[in-house]
Design brief:
The protein has ten helices and 15 strands. It is an alpha/beta fold. The strands form three sheets. Strands 3, 4, 5, 6, 7, 14 and 15 form a seven-stranded mixed beta sheet that branches. A six-stranded parallel beta sheet has the order 10-9-8-11-12-13, sandwiched between helices. The longest helix is centred in the last third of the chain and has 20 residues. The protein is globular.
């Protein structure tokens, strides 16, 4: 099969087309003929040599795919050969065929194309796990999304709004701030010209937000602590601003704050399957009713994966960057 491999750690041009054997299947896995695959920030980090795949995972990049089931351990999964599905995988998505644990496979939402469905797994699994499970966003609580026009950001904004929450989001330009608002954020905050902590405090009458989804960390942490409401929760999922920061532990004690973090890729199949079940029950109906829309910025053919990575690194995009094979 044709695939994209990382020839050596480096810039986007180290990605190259190669021939690989069809992926071998383990018990409980399905083989999917890939129609489309999502491009995500962890793919870029892996290409640069900063994010190795977990033991036993494919060395090929790509964490989410959509396509047609061709064979595998169907068992009592409810799927059959020929079904169109999307899946979260540990690697191997940049290829014509990909193996996926059956628990991490979901039907393509009715009305969605395989290309659109391939944009779902990585961001929806991540947002659900961190915003709704770990940080426990619920009721009338408010959410601040850092990086509102990223794939994660557009997912978090739309999903939280669909559940009736007030959402604020940061972005790096006025155009991107307005894009966040069109997606459902009450206020897009241009972090280059505004202090997001001051804006959030003003918008919430001095109370602050209940949950922050953060991909930056670093020197954002003190301001995030400052704009959390009492009993607020900060969920960190990436370290684009650096891995070290000062933290006022006194505020955590006095105001009962929670700072948590997680990475999804190394978690167990059972953990991810539990998220998949929640998404199918609570989120897939929203997608099928059109309450949440796909946000795809640009699509590239598989052999232009390097150009897709260059676009990802430019941060010029709003939403998802995709690779299309069929």
């Amino acid at each position: 099969m044709h695939a994209i491999e990382i020839s050596k750690p480096g810039a986007a041009d180290v990605l190259r087309v190669c021939e690989r054997p069809m992926p071998a299947l383990k018990p409980g896995e399905l083989r999917i003929k890939v129609h489309a695959a999502g491009v995500n920030r962890p793919d870029v980090l892996q290409r640069m040599g900063h994010y190795a795949p977990p033991p036993g995972a494919s060395d090929l990049p790509g964490l989410e795919v959509a396509g047609e089931i061709v064979d595998g351990d169907l068992g009592s999964s409810g799927f059959k050969v020929g079904d169109l599905v999307c899946a979260l995988v540990q690697g191997g998505g940049y290829a014509e065929y990909c193996a996926a644990p059956v628990g991490q496979v979901l039907p393509i939402p009715k009305g969605w194309s395989p290309l659109e469905a391939a944009s779902l797994p990585e961001t929806y699994f991540t947002v659900w796990s961190n915003v709704f499970d770990r940080a426990g966003l619920n009721g009338r609580e408010t959410l601040l999304v850092q990086g509102g026009t990223s794939g994660i950001g557009v997912t978090a904004i739309q999903l939280a709004r669909a559940f009736g929450h007030r959402v604020f989001a940061t972005a790096g330009s006025e155009d991107k701030a307005r894009a966040c608002e069109r997606l459902g954020a009450e206020r897009g905050i241009n972090y280059r010209h505004e202090d997001f902590a001051e804006v959030v405090k003003a918008l919430t009458g001095g109370r602050g937000v209940d949950v922050i989804l953060d991909m930056v960390a670093g020197d954002y942490l003190p301001r995030e602590i400052a704009c959390l409401a009492d009993d607020g929760r900060l969920a960190i999922i990436a370290l684009l601003g650096g891995a070290k920061a000062e933290l006022d532990m006194g505020q955590l004690l006095r105001r009962r704050l929670t700072v948590t973090g997680s990475t999804l890729r190394p978690r167990s199949v059972e953990f991810k399957a539990a998220i998949a079940a929640q998404l199918r029950q609570r989120v897939w109906p929203l997608l099928e009713r059109g309450e949440i829309k796909p946000v795809i910025y640009q699509t590239f053919p598989l052999e232009q994966a390097a150009a897709a990575h260059a676009l990802m690194e430019s941060s010029a995009h709003v939403g998802k960057i995709m690779l299309q094979l069929v």
